[in-house]
Write a structure and sequence with these properties.
Length: 250
């Protein structure tokens, strides 16, 4: 039996590409997400011996704990947790944003991430394993409409660094991965299904691809055990930084 990775958000984007990359590299993968049909298709594609799927809403703590408890014996020795499931909802400034959207992001990007991490820490310590938390450039660079999404990713980045401190001496490695613009279903979800908005955002700018991120997670996870990537920020070459905004009295 090869190494085992639990990759959350494996029905789309980074998570699905990472599941493919890790199975291709000989690992066994626990793939989770809400869309059961997509998980079944992934299991059919990659082989039921290599992939264990669990379909549940990661915000549902009872369902999460049930999925952990129901892991088959040969998928229990988890070596790597990729906390990838997450989303942005909305692009409105704080003063007009939806509170429901904010709560969805906090529940998914923060509460669910810490809940699964806490549940798997004893196993990861026993395995001298690793955690890769998918944060974002939004964790560091403010932009109009980033508000709670960006704040949730700042939490992910800081939580990751603090996990490192707590896990000192355990051999467990922790990385926060902070990508910039990547073309997945991310913008479709953020805009509540506006395909044209998604297409326009990525048009002509060579975004990061899901395969780029999968290859990066693969690289991080397969470094020698004495090396820890603390934080890795990755942007498309065609994306960079803009200046501060200044409001002047007319
Ligand atoms: P996608 O929308 O393509 O994938 C998001 C994944 O998260 C899906 O598999 C989805 O599964 C899962 N997910 C979302 N909500 C839940 C939930 N409640 N329960 C279980 N699973 C859930 O986007 P990306 O691949 O781009 O996003 C992956 C991560 O990368 C996210 O954390 C995102 O914030 C981050 N990121 C994305 C960037 C980008 O530009 N694309 C840049 C930087 C970071 P399902 O819907 O089936 O439940
Ligand atoms: C996704 C990148 O710039 O849309 O985390 O916030 S951004």
């Amino acid at each position: 039996m090869g190494k085992i990775a639990w990759i959350t958000g494996a029905t789309s984007g980074f998570g699905r590409a990472a599941a493919r990359r890790f199975v291709e590299g000989g690992w066994h993968v626990i793939a989770s997400g809400r869309r059961a049909q997509r998980l079944a298709a992934l299991r059919d594609e990659l082989g039921a011996d290599n992939v264990h799927t669990c379909a549940f809403d990661i915000r549902d703590e009872a369902a999460l704990n049930a999925a952990v408890a129901a892991l088959p014996e040969n998928f229990r020795g988890i070596d790597l947790l990729v906390n990838n499931a997450g989303l942005a909802q909305g692009t409105a400034p704080a003063q007009s944003a939806s509170l429901d959207d904010w709560k969805t992001m906090i529940d998914t990007n923060i509460t669910a991430l810490v809940t699964l991490t806490r549940a798997l820490l004893p196993t990861l310590i026993a395995q001298r394993g690793a955690i890769v938390n998918v944060s974002s450039t939004a964790a560091r660079y403010p932009y109009v409409g980033g508000n709670v999404y960006a704040g949730s990713k700042a939490f992910v980045s800081q939580f990751s660094l603090n996990l490192r401190a707590d896990l000192h001496g355990s051999g467990v490695r922790v990385t926060t991965l902070e990508p910039g613009m990547a073309q997945t279903e991310f913008t479709l979800v953020r805009t509540h299904g506006d395909q044209a908005a998604s297409d326009t955002l990525y048009a002509g700018m060579a975004p990061i691809t899901a395969d780029d991120i999968a290859a990066t997670i693969w690289w991080i996870a397969n470094l020698p055990a004495h090396l820890n990537v603390n934080r890795l920020e990755l942007m498309p070459t065609s994306q960079s930084f803009a200046g501060f905004q200044i409001h002047r009295n007319a």
